[in-house]
Amino acid sequence: MHLFKKPARWATAAACGLLALAALPAAPASAAARAASAAGVEGGAPAAPARYAQQRLDWQPCQSGALECASMTVPRDWYHPGAGADLTVAVSRHRAADPAARRGVLMMAAGGPGASGLGRPAGLASYSPRLAAAYDIVGFDQRGVGASTQVLCSDQDTVDALFTSGDLRDRSPQAVDATVKRSRDFVRDCERRSGGLLPYITTDQAVHDMDLFRALLGESKVSYYGPSYATFLGAYYATEFPRRVDRVVLDSNIGFTGSWQEFLTGQPMSFQRRFEQDFLPWLAANDATYHQGRTAAEAGASYERLRSSLGAHPLDLEGTTVTPNHLDAAATSIIYSGDRFPDLAVLLGVLEHPEAAPQPALAALAEKLKHPLGAQFAADFFSVICQDTPWDHDSASWVRRSAADSRAYPMAGARELTFASVCAAWPRSLAPRVRVTGRGLPPMLMLNSLHDPATYYEGALRAHRETAGTRLITVGGGDHGVYQSHNACVDGYVEGFLVDGRMPAGDASCAGNPLPVPGRQDRTGQAEEPLSTTRSVPTTAPASGEAR
């Protein structure tokens, strides 16, 4: 799920406040020889055939200009590299700013699964001059995503219908049957339109792509930083290629020692906790600004009244029909980051009184709310989560479970049946089961906030306890993605480890960043202006999340 971009301002601010929603030298020819020798047999798949291991990355300036980019050819199936058409993986690089101080390569990946990682090295290098000096920072678009070979499923209208049709809290037999049918239709679309690619869009296949990338860079080992889903990816990479990793940081952790089913069925609780224990008290404390209720209970009741109103009378917002599902999707996405709480507060006011907002602002807001999940993101997301680990394929059991979770944790429990029904209908996967234990690995640093709604603390704690050699930094609050958030304590642990090799002797903790105060400077240096600021809301994504 996306975290939100930094505040953006429209030319005409809404009176009531709105939520908007150098080319470097190519590697020497000897790099191919180094790559071939570095690509040994590990991770269960055979060594990369010469036509992959001896390819040369043709680095050119990326379109953004801040990085250099290349394309890497990978087999469709690492276990049968001669079968099927090859795939392309887009890769990027930010050269170490201080070659004399360079200590190696820091590989990073994106969240999701389904988010683009190609541009991430530029953001990390800008945020941390220490990392930019010490490492070549490299990134990639995972197979199935972005500039790499994409996997195709349904069109955007079909994906929209998955998440916006009816009211996902409706548990009538007709509504439940319709939800299950939409999920099954989505899977049939995936099978029909993917060109046979679905079985190969898995984390296991992706980590073999990562290891080829390492080899083509001429490195015997890489360090790694990954947030959200990228913690799953990093834990799998380290497990399958234990002699190829150096210093590893996993930020906002999926329960990578267990299954996707175990992890995702824990999310309704954590989203509800974040909403009720963090957002609603904050909203009530700022009732003088937002007028949603002076107590958390009153603020929660205001949310439910708005939701009921949208159910009885969906709002036509510049051609986008806003339903209760749109509201829940926006709310669950916004609460990923505490400094975006004003976005949700303002959105509630706008949906209550759209007549008070200027038309250009409403049009921009409608566009942001229109698609709760992008079609391309959905294709990769479900390919990965439905295939990496086993799922219960009994639809009746999911109907029962989702009914209970919808009652207990309505914020996200109502959509559980949609996600589970997709994976219940997905063709059974042949992907190997990877068991993450930490044995034989160097120490790994883990970070997690206590009330992270997407990658909840209980899952991170369980993964920490079951993975030998890990250290867990517990961060207060509930932000998803705690590094690169201007938290000096967190930054000190991460950069002290990646640059200087200082691993904490034991688990440790950091205070979380304070929640924003309307009208005061936030930590980005921009003033919170609840009556005039408009903010950017990206497309909502469903589960494990995309961190900064």
Describe the fold and architecture.
There is one protein chain. By secondary structure, the chain is α/β, with parallel strands linked by helices. 41% of the residues lie in helices and 13% in strands. It contains 21 helices and 14 strands. The chain has helices spanning 30-38, 50-53, 120-127, 129-134, 156-164, 173-193, 203-216, 229-240, 260-264, 267-285, 287-290, 296-312, 324-334, 341-352, 359-370, 375-385, 395-408, 410-413, 416-425, 457-466, 488-500, and strands at 18-20, 60-61, 68-74, 87-94, 104-108, 135-140, 222-228, 245-253, 315-317, 320-322, 444-449, 470-475, 508-510, 534-536. It has a ten-stranded mixed β-sheet, with helices on both faces. A two-stranded parallel sheet has the order 1-14. A hairpin with a 2-residue loop joins strand 9 (315-317) and strand 10 (320-322). Helix 5 runs antiparallel to helix 6 and helix 6 (173-193) crosses helix 19. The longest helix has 21 residues, at 173-193. It is globular. Mean pLDDT is 88; it is low at 1-41 and 521-545.
